[in-house]
Amino acid sequence: MQTVLGAGGPIADELVNELHRNHTKDIRLVSRKPSKVNDTDELVAADLTDAEATSRAVAGSDIAYLTVGLPLDSELWERQFPAMMRNVIDACAEHGTKLVFFDNTYMYPGTPTPQTESTAFAPGGRKGRVRGQIATMLLEAMRAGRVEALIGRAPEFYGPGRTKSYTNSLVFDRIKAGKRPFVPVDAQAKRSLIWTPDASRALALLGNTPDAYGQTWHLPIDPDRQSYDQLIKTAGEVTGRKIGYTVLPMLAFGLGRRFVKPLDEMYELLVRYRDDNIFDSSKFAARFPEFQVTSYREGVERILAG
For the whole model, what pTM was predicted? Predict the structure, then answer.
């Protein structure tokens, strides 16, 4: 049995598809209101902030994937993410279940220095501190031998379907709608973006690779990093039209955050858009050379075609 904790999002749904295609048909989906991705999926309704419910959800699982997401709300993150991580670690320790944690990069410093699996945490705001806290909780449990686990860490998403990210909402969704895209802070800075189906395929591969455990892995991206200017030019080539864009400077977000809560929640992340963002996934590429990463051009083509 392989169990997805936090089922229902685009990462989790594609993870379930990949597990079903290539690894196992014995899959359990856990969320507050889970729904089947495949006919054979087992559904368990559970609140991961409830320790007993989490234990019941994990029981009988060989591997559990923690992919839960929360709305971009600092207070909610501070209240729920640590409780979820604590309960999942305890449940996996209780039942002898391996744990695969899908993580992000919010705890990394927002500098142009390349980010590797050994980059020290230096969060620049509340959400980054929460992500650093829960990653540290798991790393300490791994070092103590309480759980056999791994961390799969991803940079910002871009992708098809229901993918949620600033790159999708500000750039590609607007292009698809025939609107002028918005670029946060700087159009020339290099971006490290992960194609969401690649993230899910890589997570399933790591979870089913015994020697991947006990480590942190940067999930695979196209190493030919593009700026928003380049990505928008590619979108123009794909659509056959010239696409202009508007850069939204830090000042605009600084003014808007006083009145619009989503802009306030986004503000701590904007430093990541000011300079090159170099997320290094060469460790994964060296261990899994057969893994085919989606190129940025292919990704743009698939988004705009879909």
Answer: 0.95
